[in-house]
Amino acid sequence: MAKAFDEMTALGDGCRSGYELVQAWLAATPAETLRQRQQEAELLFRRIGITFAVYGDAEGEERLIPFDIVPRVLTRPEWQRLSKGLEQRVNALNMFLKDIYGKGEVLKAGVVPEDLVYRNPYFRPEMQGMQLPHDIYVMIAGIDIVRVDADTFYVLEDNARTPSGVSYMLENREVMMRLFPDLCARHRIAPVENYADELLATLKSVAPDSAPGEPTVAVLTPGAFNSAYYEHSFLADKLGVELVEGRDLFVRENIVYMRTTEGPKRLDVIYRRVDDDFIDPLAFRPDSVLGVPGLLSAYRAGNVTLANAVGTGCADDKAVYSYMPEIVRFYTGAEPILSNVPTWRCREPDALKYVLEHLPELVVKEVDGSGGYGMLVGPKADSATIENFRQKLIRDPSKFIAQPTLALSTVPTFVGEGVAPRHVDLRPYVLTGADGVKTVPGGLTRVALKEGSLVVNSSQGGGTKDTWVVDVPITDAAIMQFQQQQQQQSRHRP
């Protein structure tokens, strides 16, 4: 595997544009001070109560997602290029979903194989022929991005169902501003704190036409035992709307109502964090106690909007992902601004043959997998694990895709032995409403804290960082002034 591109120093000892003050800060700040700030950050997160649960964990305990105090920096021009690519991609995702649940032109044209859609476990026939407000299926998208050099960003994954992590993006920024006000003040950092206002405006903009007056919005959660419950409650609080469970809602004459102390109240938009299978026991899994009986009927009648729409999982399947360049061209008539990671579809005989011959070099993923589970990282796997995956591929190749092992970019990260490079990805959040597509500047950076690891997922030992989109250039005078300030502070530290 090639040497990783370092986002602060490139491949040398210099400093890339945008990172000048961060580099000066790290050079002037003793390791013990950084360690103290790291401990303060952990204490703040504990007080706030930001935790997650890992399904299948033997102890079943709530954990903190590790937070790294060294920010990741993107320049404004870099972000503008990324943002345009994200908007193009999410527009294509929405057009693809409208099409496969409508006329199916992309399938008739042979751009995407029919069986890949119609046999997809996330394809919902119940959605065929439905007319959604403004033809929007994915109101909230989380598009996972990786970087391999100064100019090349790849889309690693499209999250079109219930993308998580935005609460950490917001809390990371708040903690950084509290712990390092001088460093933050020296940069012109694009704000993220208006995300809640943008999200609420997006949700209200896609309310059904039948909504009387100002739309009523709620966040639907599976409950306190869900691994992302903190985020559900956090978002409801930030949006200023009710956090509800299935038992708090009922359907009467195809209208959804919320039980309140003042009696039933009509609900127009549901930001749901409950998977399709569990959202309505009358339509999907009859044993579900998390959903609302009759919700799909109200949805089909056009009396409530679900964000994201039912059936969006068909668009973030990893096999469908492999066709996204063709999907973008088909609907937009333009070349994709953001490229996919090169991908072998194991369902194709020639691709399967190549993958089986090169397993130790590749990353192999389940097409419907998530969270870093069910995957093989060939260069990091032992021979027994590789052979186990070989048998899985031979038994059912259609369940897998394979990709080269990319040298993901690294950023400076404070770890036990000090500041060291660690691999990262980026999850920007993209909102689509009646007034168009908006991207939140920065998003959530996930970092693989283990040396050499390429797995950034929190459930697999990863952490998070604040992501700064900054204006450049930073002048030499500003750098010198900041260095002097840091040196003075260091002399006065006990």
From TrEMBL:
Residue ranges of domain Circularly permuted ATP-grasp type in the record: 71-448
Taxonomic source organism: Prosthecodimorpha staleyi
Pfam families in alphabetical order: CP_ATPgrasp_2
Protein's name in the database: Circularly permuted type 2 ATP-grasp protein
Superkingdom of the organism of origin: Bacteria
InterPro entries registered for this protein in UniProt: ATP-dep_Glu-Cys_Ligase-2, CP_ATPgrasp_2, UCP005522
